[in-house]
């Protein structure tokens, strides 16, 4: 176990805001760490410091001399006209079989691998960038909100890869399910202090809650003790016979202090709109067609949603989840069929096309007061604003100076102050931290109205949804099962797909058209050479897996004699793998020249 990174006595501030103060943390080469903290706490700033893009005001970041860092790029790194395979080979300088192998982990095959990469959707392009990042085999991966806008299938593929990844990871995310599935440790940034907890996020949040409750109990006992000592001192300090006792008690009193539990006071509390529960169908549609002029996204949609249901809309990216939501709320007209809401449905919408149209000349507090139902007190408005991170002077900000994330939170705060009995929410947790997402989930669970929503956050989806609609293959249907059953089915599809690929020989192989890093040159191989290359590719994949397995056993082995045996096996497999890779390169070079 080697230390990759050490943060010591780190201090960093922007103006009056202190982001890091005497911060300490150590990251080793055998751990995957989930990094959490409130919005604005400084998580992204710390990542920039670790990448060398920003410096500390004081303190040190000590890096292992052989450490290499991989960071998920947000910009478009693709050249015009190149395929995903072209890009992977050019970017990583890895052989074709290796690029195909890693691409296959993210289901990048066929046209997705060999067609123009710029023609892929944003989600598929993210898969390509993740594959490229992992092909560099960095010692430390830094991932900043990697699950944002990734559908469930891509999240699971990323999880599967990270679990088998040999290096260390530091992952910033508000997605509890993703962190729980990938990270063994939790790093928290709170009021400038870094805390490394040797366990998963759920255990850490449980520990954090218990610690706060303990601190509150200690403070209550301390306050009682202070009152008792103050009473004794005030009563006895003037008497000659008890003055010395009073002085002694005063010293005890001076030593007593309260534990700082500011973070507990800042924990978000969100109350959902108070509405009367209703029975029966809230919404019905029959043979509905949704889409845009000239494009049908999904058709033959027949659905019914009951009052009081909390319906999660699920499906892969690009299938039409957001199009369905926009049609339900009237932003898009159905292209066919029928759609009907029952009487007295008051629909509140949270979506990008809504929160970008908030009146720009209003202040935060003016907008919220305008959205609040009659009878809402100023204190209730300020409480909801504070829960969504608008506190103190921030409530006087004009909407026009707010960021996209701030406008999104403002729109959500307005909904929570209203009297809507139907809430339609498109990714409500994207701009919220872990604690606020949890508070929102609790509020929606207690809501007596109807909720229809999409989310890529599995913990949130599982907590809130009690019914599921799946958008898939050009239609939308009620899913006959809960969200856990849906997640299981996607996992099963991924497993079955890999099993089928393994049966067929897998990889990008010699059966697909392959390209060099620069152009369209097609490999012209003889049958004998093709067969030999395919056999070596299978051997390389087998040896590479054996090497991974042996490395994992070495990392967990505590028996010295067994470790020596494992190390010898690891060395032998590594030599065989190197020989096979060299042979593969020789064969492909010879067939290229033929």
Automatic annotation (TrEMBL):
Keywords: ATP-binding, Nucleotide-binding. CDD domains: ABCF_EF-3. Transmembrane segments: none annotated. Residues 5-216, 283-498 form the ABC transporter domain. Residues 497-529 are annotated as: Disordered. One of its GO terms (molecular function) is ATP binding. The keyword ATP-binding applies. The keyword Nucleotide-binding applies. PANTHER family: ABC TRANSPORTER ATP-BINDING SUBUNIT, DRUG RESISTANCE ABC TRANSPORTER,ATP-BINDING PROTEIN. This is Putative ABC transporter ATP-binding protein YheS. It comes from Mariniblastus fucicola. The gene is yheS.
């Amino acid at each position: 176990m080697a230390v990759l990174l050490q943060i010591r006595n780190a201090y960093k501030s922007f103006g009056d805001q202190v982001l890091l103060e005497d911060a300490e943390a150590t990251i080793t080469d055998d751990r995957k760490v989930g990094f959490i903290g409130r919005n604005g706490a400084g998580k992204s700033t710390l990542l920039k410091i670790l990448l060398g893009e920003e410096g500390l005001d004081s303190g040190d970041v000590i890096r292992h001399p052989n450490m290499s860092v991989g960071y998920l790029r947000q910009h478009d790194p693709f050249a015009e006209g190149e395929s995903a395979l072209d890009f992977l080979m050019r970017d990583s300088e890895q052989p074709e079989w290796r690029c195909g192998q890693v691409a296959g982990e993210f289901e990048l095959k066929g046209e997705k691998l060999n067609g123009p990469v710029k023609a892929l959707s944003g989600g598929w392009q993210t898969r390509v960038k993740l594959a490229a990042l992992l092909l560099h085999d960095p010692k430390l991966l830094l991932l900043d909100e990697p699950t944002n806008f990734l559908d469930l299938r891509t999240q699971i593929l990323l999880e599967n890869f990270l679990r088998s990844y040999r290096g260390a990871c530091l992952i910033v995310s508000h997605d509890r399910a993703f962190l729980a599935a990938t990270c063994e440790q939790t790093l928290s940034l709170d009021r400038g202090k870094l805390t490394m907890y040797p366990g998963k996020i759920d255990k850490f949040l449980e520990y954090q809650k218990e610690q706060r409750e303990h601190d509150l109990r200690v403070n209550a006992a301390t306050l009682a003790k202070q009152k008792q000592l103050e009473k004794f001192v005030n009563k006895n300090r003037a008497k000659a016979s008890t003055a010395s006792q009073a002085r002694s008690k005063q010293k005890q009193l001076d030593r007593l202090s309260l534990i700082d539990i500011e973070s507990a006071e800042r924990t978000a509390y969100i109350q959902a709109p108070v509405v009367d529960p209703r029975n029966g169908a809230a919404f019905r549609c029959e043979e509905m067609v949704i889409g845009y002029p000239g494009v049908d996204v999904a058709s033959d949609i027949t659905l019914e949603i009951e009052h009081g249901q909390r319906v999660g809309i699920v499906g892969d990216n690009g299938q039409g989840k957001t199009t369905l939501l926009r049609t339900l709320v009237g932003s898009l007209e159905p292209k066919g069929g029928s759609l009907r809401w029952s009487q007295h449905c008051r629909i509140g919408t949270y979506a990008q096309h809504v929160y970008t149209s908030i009146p720009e000349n209003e202040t935060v507090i003016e907008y919220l007061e305008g959205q609040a139902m009659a009878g809402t007190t100023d204190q209730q408005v300020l409480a909801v604003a504070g829960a969504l991170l608008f506190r103190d002077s921030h409530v006087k900000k004009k909407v026009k100076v707010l960021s996209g994330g701030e406008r999104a939170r403002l729109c959500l705060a307005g909904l929570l102050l209203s009297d809507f009995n139907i809430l339609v929410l498109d990714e409500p947790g994207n701009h919220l931290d872990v604690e606020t997402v949890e508070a929102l989930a609790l509020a929606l669970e207690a809501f007596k109205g109807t909720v229809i929503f999409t989310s890529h956050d599995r913990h949130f989806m599982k907590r809130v949804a009690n019914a599921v609609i799946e958008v898939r293959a050009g239609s939308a249907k009620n899913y006959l099962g809960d969200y856990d059953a849906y997640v299981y089915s996607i996992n099963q599809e991924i497993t079955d797909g890999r099993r089928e690929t393994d049966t067929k020989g897998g990889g990008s192989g010699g059966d697909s058209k392959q390209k060099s890093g620069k152009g369209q040159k097609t490999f012209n191989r003889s049958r004998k050479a093709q067969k030999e290359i395919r056999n070596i590719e299978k051997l390389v994949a087998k040896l590479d897996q054996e090497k991974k397995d042996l490395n994992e056993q070495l990392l967990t082995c505590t028996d010295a004699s067994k470790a020596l045996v494992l190390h010898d096996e690891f060395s032998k497999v590594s030599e065989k793998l190197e020989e096979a890779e060299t042979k593969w390169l020789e064969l492909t070079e010879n067939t290229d020249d033929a």
